[in-house]
Amino acid sequence: MIIFNKKSDLKVYLQNIKAYKRSVGFVPTMGALHNGHLSLIKKAKKNNDIVIVSIFVNPTQFDKKEDLLKYPKTLENDKIVLESADCDVLFYPSVKEIYNENVVSETFDFDGLEHQMEGKFRNGHFNGVGTIVKTLFEIIEPDRAYFGQKDFQQLQIIKKMVNKHRINVKIKGCAIFREEDGLAMSSRNTRLTPEQREAAPFIYKTLKRARIKFGTENADTITKWVENEFKNHPLFTLEYFTIADEKSLETIQNKDSSKKYRAFIAVFAEDIRLIDNIRLNNL
Ligand code: AMP
Ligand 1 centroid vs 148 CA: distance in angstroms? Predict the structure, then answer.
């Protein structure tokens, strides 16, 4: 695996790769790699000649300084994981390399997707995400880029950005990878105390129960039920639960049998924020 810290060096390497018409798959990450990331890398390996993974903890997408400072960093282990996954290139730039002295986001219009859910609770988050992903796409110019449905809203927003800005890359959504007990894999899980970790499958269990209820109950009743489930939970505080249209990400009032719906949840275990989602109906 070749490691690049400088975009100019990476670009020179890529000129060669592209001259030979070899396809490039790209997996952007913030590091602290786990099997969820690996599932994206494996998919990229299958469908591309060269796979590039970036590790960059992007400061402009964090609304809370504490969260940014506490974000887990495990670079040496990440390198071993990437080698074992046969990753071809790791791009690991500094903040200065990406932003120079100007650590601010571009402002994007994602046709309202950015105002739902995560956008309501994490101020400026999606401008930060849009900025870093667009910058990385401009440097790498990948044929395909891989994103997890774990961050479903982010995936829809990236698709929107690529469409609106006519960026020539195919966006591939990948299924949520879970621990055996159902907890969605996340770099933040390593920060949970043993007690919080043991209780955390409650989040996915609640989503699965909501999916069953969706067959017979309306969205509002299910939302109130979930809020109640968390009301007296000793370890978790619910930030939001919502049932939304997969396309518009707007909270639904009434079901329409021609639309796909998903339930989305964000929960705090003290200052550790966990998100998850589940498809509610099949068309
Ligand atoms: P992150 O390092 O958290 O920014 O995640 C990098 C990419 O991995 C994003 O596209 C995430 O959606 C994806 N990802 C993170 N966790 C999971 C998971 N449990 N299953 C599938 N994809 C994931």
Answer: 5
How many CB atoms lie under 10 A from the CB of residue 204? 20
Query: Tokens 């550790």 — which residue?
Result: 272
- What string of pLDDT tens digits covers the 283 residues of the chain? 999 999 999 999 999 999 999 999 999 999 999 999 999 999 999 999 999 999 999 999 999 999 999 999 999 999 999 999 999 999 999 999 999 999 999 999 999 999 999 999 999 999 999 999 999 999 999 999 999 999 999 999 999 999 999 999 999 999 999 999 999 999 999 999 999 999 999 999 999 999 999 999 999 999 999 999 999 899 999 999 999 999 999 999 899 989 999 999 999 999 999 999 999 998 7
How far is the C-alpha of 198 from the C-alpha of 58, rounded, in Å? 29
Q: Would the CB of 85 count as within 6 Å of ligand 1? A: no
Tell me the β-bridge partners of 178.
Answer: 184
Evaluate: CB of 56 within 6 angstroms of ligand 1.
no
37 catalytic residue (yes or no): yes
Report domain 2-174's class: alpha beta
| CATH architecture for residues 187-278 | 2-Layer Sandwich (3.30)
Q: Which residues contact 49 (CB under 8 A, 6 or more apart)?
A: 17, 22, 23, 24
Domain locations in the chain as residue ranges: 2-174, 187-278
Question: Count of CB atoms within 10 A of residue 279's CB?
Answer: 16
Binding site membership of 127 for ligand 1 (Cβ less than 6 Å): no
Query: Quick one: which atom of ligand 1 is closest to the CA of 34?
Result: 16
Residue 232 Cα to ligand 1 midpoint, Å, equals 30
